[in-house]
Design goal:
The chain has helices spanning about 30-40, 55-65, 110-120, 130-145, 165-175, 180-190, 200-210, 245-260, 265-280, 290-300; strands at about 5-10, 15-20, 20-25, 40-45, 50, 75, 80-85, 95, 120-125, 150-155, 175-180, 215, 225, 230-235. With about 300 residues, the chain is of the alpha/beta class. It has a single domain (about 5-300), classed as UDP-N-acetylmuramoyl-L-alanine:D-glutamate ligase, CATH 3.40.1190. The strands form 3 sheets. The chain has an 8-stranded mixed beta sheet, with helices on both faces. Strand 12 (about 215) and strand 13 form a beta hairpin. Helix 9 runs antiparallel to helix 10. The radius of gyration is 18 Å and the shape is globular. The termini are close together.
Length: about 300
């Protein structure tokens, strides 16, 4: 296995999840980068925060967790993003996302262009593309990366912040796509995918957009990984769920870690399910890392 350290970018929303028990730092791409760094790579968060108290708190919190903050953009005109999060009886989150925040107003800069040229992997989703400025910036970042950079589209549908056009554009930009079992049904209807089973739908998505890997997550029931030549299912790891916020992002980080190292599909699947389930058993999307869990996820 390749043991070098990779530059792994999460580009998109950075915000505070306002949970019943208090606020927690979050945003899918930021969660992804945090867990990539916990696994030993250079996790980079590309986002934008307000020039306000919450923005300052985000920067200081990330710095305390050992993450680089010098690539975050500061917005004097728009507030730091927040999300109201309610949890159902199973710990599954329901989100109300505040609009017109700092991360809705990305700017293309020389700094971000330079990072695009050295990135080994970049993860992006639909939510941060809900406004034109951020969408244009993300869609400029992706083709600026090197051809060997792995582009991971974590579909991550939220409220009504997606469209057929956005899905198609993002899928065409991606090498790897991750979506959950509910999202694949929505994507099936929007894009008229062929098939009824998740495997058939994933394979049609793979073929239509010339993807290398499609991953369907199933919550407590594990996941399905599909490539052109093989597939693997994992039943998941049973845990007592504290809250599921960020579990999918941790899953994607472990997937990226092993994908970049050329790991077998089964190992990639095992690791992703392991880290995702562990995060679901913790409070918040960026819990302090557990060295024992990290070693198991890395396959050491």
């Amino acid at each position: 296995m390749n043991d070098r350290s990779f530059a792994i970018v999460g580009i998109g929303e950075l915000l505070f999840d306002l949970l019943p028990g208090g606020k927690q730092l979050g945003g899918a791409p930021a969660n992804f980068a945090y867990h990539a760094a916990a696994l030993g790579d250079r996790g980079l968060i590309l986002s934008r925060v307000g020039s306000d108290a919450l923005g300052e708190e985000i920067i200081s919190t990330l710095a305390l967790r050992g993450l680089e903050t010098n690539h975050l953009q500061i917005d004097a005109a728009h507030p730091t993003g927040t999300v109201q999060v309610k949890l159902d009886v199973n710990g599954q989150p329901d989100f109300t996302i505040i609009e017109n925040t700092a991360w809705d107003n990305f700017e293309w800069t020389e700094d971000w262009e330079a990072l695009a040229r050295v990135a080994d992997a970049v993860c992006f989703g639909t939510l941060a593309q809900r406004t034109l400025p951020s969408r244009q910036t993300i869609q400029k970042f992706l083709p600026t990366t090197r051809s060997e950079c792995v582009k991971i589209f974590d579909v991550n549908l939220r409220q009504s912040y997606y469209s057929e056009e956005l899905l198609v554009q993002s899928l065409r930009s991606a090498d790897v796509v991750k979506l959950n079992d509910q999202e694949i049904q929505v994507v099936k209807n929007i894009l008229a995918l062929s098939g009824s089973s998740e495997e058939e739908l994933a394979r049609d998505l793979l073929n239509k957009f010339a993807l290398d890997l499609v991953c369907v997550t199933r919550g407590a029931r594990g996941s399905l990984f599909v490539t052109a030549k093989q597939q693997t299912e994992h039943p998941g790891f049973p845990v007592a769920v504290a809250d599921a916020v960020g579990a999918g992002d941790a899953f994607t980080a472990a997937l990226a870690h092993h994908y970049l190292r050329g790991s077998p599909l089964e190992l990639m699947s095992e690791a992703a399910n392991l880290l995702g389930s562990w995060v679901a058993s913790q409070v918040g999307a960026m819990p302090p890392k557990d060295p024992e869990v990290i070693l198991r996820v890395r396959g050491e």
